[in-house]
Amino acid sequence: MKYLIVGLGNIGPEYADTRHNIGFMILDELAKREGAKFSNMRLAYYTEVSYKGRMLCLIKPTTYMNLSGKALNHWMKDLKIPVENVLVLVDDLALPLGTLRLKPQGSAAGHNGLKHIEETLGNNKYARLRFGISDNYPKGRQVDYVLSGFDDDEQPELPALIDRSIDMIKSFATIGTELTMTKFNK
Length: 186
Hints:
The protein is of the alpha/beta class.
């Protein structure tokens, strides 16, 4: 069984470790733990890790956030992975930091990466792991906020949240969306 795990983010050193790149950060940690290395391939950095007889195909789109659907669609078709085996990792302003939510589908909620995926697939019926980054920014400063790094008081929480995200990815691939939601969503 193959699963496509899509970490959303933007390429380039100026975006590394920003709130908007939490999807990249989670996949980087997962790959590091498994001794896997990303290769720059068509529309994405790509690597594979094996977990309990499943192949987790990890991609970090190189299309920039607003064109994420292009990479997701290419790799879904190339690897012949059905949409029910796709999981998108995304930052979420509507959730406080420390909240992780797996959803079987849902709205893009203003997130440009999810909007493009929805446009490309023609629907919103794909699983996503929403990583809360909270909305602690002044009115009109949303872009600056998501493209900035985590605050000093938030940094200590990140390793445990990334660990939990990795556990949720592995759970999604082994027991599915519904049971993972029951086990992890609070």
